[in-house]
Amino acid sequence: MTIYRMSALLALSVSVAALPQSVRAQDLSLDDSESTIVLPGIDVEQGGAPARKAGQARNPQRQSGPSASAVASDELVVTPGGRPEARGKVAGTVQVIDRGTIERSTSQSVTELLRENAVGFFSEWTPGQTSINIRGAATDGQGKDFRSQVLVLVNGRRAGTANLSKLSLADVDRIEVVRGPASVVYGSQNLGGVINIIMKTGRSAPGTLVEGRIGSWDLYQGKVQHGGTSGGVDYYAGVSGGMRDDYHSGKGGGHMENTDWDRRGATGSLGYQINPNHRLEFNARTDGVYDVGFRGSAANHFARDDRSNKSADASYYGRTSDGVFNWFLQSYIVEDVDNFKWASPSSARTSLDHNRRELDIFGTRVQPRVRPWEGHELLLGWDWEQSTLRSERVRVGLGGAPIGQVPPQDNNQTDRVHGFYFEDSQTFFNDVLGLRGGMRYTTGTTSFDPTPHYRDQVNTSQDYDALTYSFGGTLAITEGIVLRAGTSTGFRAPTATELAAATTNLNDTQSIGNPNLSPETNEQIEVGANISGWLGTIDLALFQNVISDRITTLRRPGSDPAISDYINNPGDIEVRGIEIGFDANLMRLIGAEQSTWRWNLFSNGYYHFDMVDKGAPATANTDKVQRMYEYETSIGTRFGQSGAGVRDWSLQIVGLLRGPMWYDTEEALLIPLGEPRNNFIHRKDPFWVWNIRGDIELTEGLKLFAGVNNLFDVNEHPIFIATDTQPCIANPASQNGGCGTSMPGREFVAGLQWRW
Hints:
Layout: H1 3-13, E1 76-77, E2 85-86, E3 94-97, H2 99-103, H3 110-116, E4 121-122, E5 132-134, E6 137-138, E7 150-154, E8 157-158, E9 172-179, E10 193-199, E11 207-215, E12 219-230, E13 233-244, E14 261-275, E15 278-293, E16 304-319, E17 325-342, E18 350-366, E19 369-370, E20 376-397, E21 413-428, E22 433-448, E23 461-478, E24 481-492, H4 496-500, E25 502-504, E26 510-512, E27 520-532, E28 536-548, E29 551-555, E30 563-568, E31 573-585, H5 586-589, E32 597-613, E33 631-641, E34 649-658, E35 661-663, E36 682-684, E37 687-699, E38 702-709, E39 747-755
Parallel strand pairs: 7-10, 26-30
Antiparallel strand pairs: 1-2, 3-9, 4-5, 5-6, 7-8, 9-10, 11-12, 11-39, 12-13, 13-14, 14-15, 15-16, 16-17, 17-18, 17-19, 18-20, 19-20, 20-21, 21-22, 22-23, 23-24, 24-27, 25-26, 27-28, 28-31, 29-30, 31-32, 32-33, 33-34, 34-37, 35-36, 37-38, 38-39
């Protein structure tokens, strides 16, 4: 099916009855009486009101706030253009996970929250490491996530990692996901999209919160947060920590040794409102997961990790009194560390293989805007960033046997990059039609720096540049129906390891760099609709994403040990799909919206009806894109009471259908019990996982909550073929003592939350 036939299908889909709109500006710390919005480097027009049509009002009947399922057209979002604007003016698809959704989840990391809301495929290798796939673009794990195809941000600037499992939810206010490269504000890595983690501040999270929870497998978690304002100053501080022992797999499984973890983090924010038109803000945070088991594909019983992410940013934003000129300046520093305390006694004959990788980033950006006349806005931007990657690696042979030292998993590099961009937008006919377009030119230099244990290293530098664009428009058919369409491009620059290094992998295979690599690129076409009415909100999108010049490895024929070369794969990945999210207020459906009862039905999902890897090896048994779901759906309902004269309570049930996935596994499986040949690409069958959570207000400000994850004790894993079931299909000689690896089985969680 071509994208043009997809457009016709979407045109038919918008003929359904309109559903209600809502405005949730308070989720962005916005108050109509205030003149600023408190997100890093972002401001709004005088008065702070979100864009609405004449006569269009907030909907006070909204039962529980927006969910991660559908964002109403008049809700503000900040990630697509780097400033707040109504969802209905954005030509791309945006998924928002707000604070209410976060607090109603029993997730214990950012990965688990996004997984529960069907953002994309998550590999979940270990409790501390995952990779992501959104619209065919993927991140890499095991420390190589600093330059991936999905861009992860914190407060609008680069997080330094795409491994979301190392990041906790304790101080997160909301998460916005932009699907595909639908923005020129961001540079390298946004082929699959942008995930922006927005932290709490004193104005978005005033008051004090204390929470503790316990659960299965000796789970203990706690957090303390306090925020507020005093005059023109606002402040926020939060600390959190937790731990859990090894979990048990689901029905028919047993004890999953080496799956325990410890978490700890802290966040601080300080803002100073100089006057209604000028603001300073400073944010600092540290987060990480420590001594976390790395069971992985070999059911490893002794490999462990420490993974941490620290950052600070300072922002200034302002405007002229008439709102014609706006400007934003931000500087930031990031330290991201992965310390792999691994070993591979079966395949590499090592009793210790420690690899420490540290990424240090310093960056700044300037983003002025001008509004010369009604409905017109011109945004300009310049950003600069320097990052240094430093790694060290030590190996010890099994039983003390002599073993050669080899370069780290990631070789040392320095990267310097500049980006220049603009975006011009204009609305017509009283905001009925909106057009926007922009371009970005990115230029950088990657240097291959001296690396430990690298013999005969030739230090080299490689320049790269990329010109990307984003064009689109929106059309408000009625107050409840907004159509959108757009096209955009993205890129990912190669790393020093890919350009020049000879890397010895954990299993003693080698990957050889290629100085002639070009940046990876992609082109996306998308059409969509946002439909709002009396019942709720539904958002639809049809898209085509084509990823070209992918940097992959190609094995040299007859090499022993196996040697692979980095190449630009001549075959594209082509993905076409449909995405649907909705949030419906069922109390309106039965005519009881004025009561104290609350009942919502919500869902988010997608179906990739065409997902082809044209660069798949000729010997492969499928051309499906690997590590990507063919379809996935999150669906749930929330029922309860709130309001005057009642004790607030709610019960939520969420089901996640993890659809089929194809994978040329790294596991060593028995032949033919596990696979017919060792390069066979497996199809993982779909499976459901159900979570349930309830809460009740014991007294004002004090809430008791409890939940069950994996309610039906399913014994599965999103990526591993050899799960913890019998008969064991893994080869014992390569499993380092285990059979297979399953995700956690049925898990119970309970806790208390106190606010004042």
